[in-house]
Amino acid sequence: MKNYKLRLTTLSPVYIGAGDDKIINKKHCIYSLYDPEILIFDEKKLFSGLRQLNRLDQYEKFMLEENARLKTLGDFMSFYHIDKTVYKKWVAYILPNFSVIKRSVSTNADDTDKGKIDNIYTFIKDAYG
Question: What gap in Å lies between CA 40 and CA 95, rounded to an integer?
Fold first, then answer.
């Protein structure tokens, strides 16, 4: 077997997955078309908080079933009257919602981007963000 030493220079940003191929979708985070934040939850804190509120069974049903009434985690929290001041304690980190920022500075009246977020892919960040 031969060994080689190489030095690579990238010509564009490099995406490095988080290793678990985790995709955060509308059932795993809370975002709104009008809120400048996307709330990403710490799963342990979320489960612990829902257990304290006796809502784990409802959460399990929500995650496993396609319910026409409860499509997002925000819908779930609203339906079961879980206040933002309560569930914000379960948040791991907050991302900026660029669709809100874009809409607030857009001057194009025909802007067809509705700010829809499909999925957020996790990745590894360096020390500089």
Answer: 8
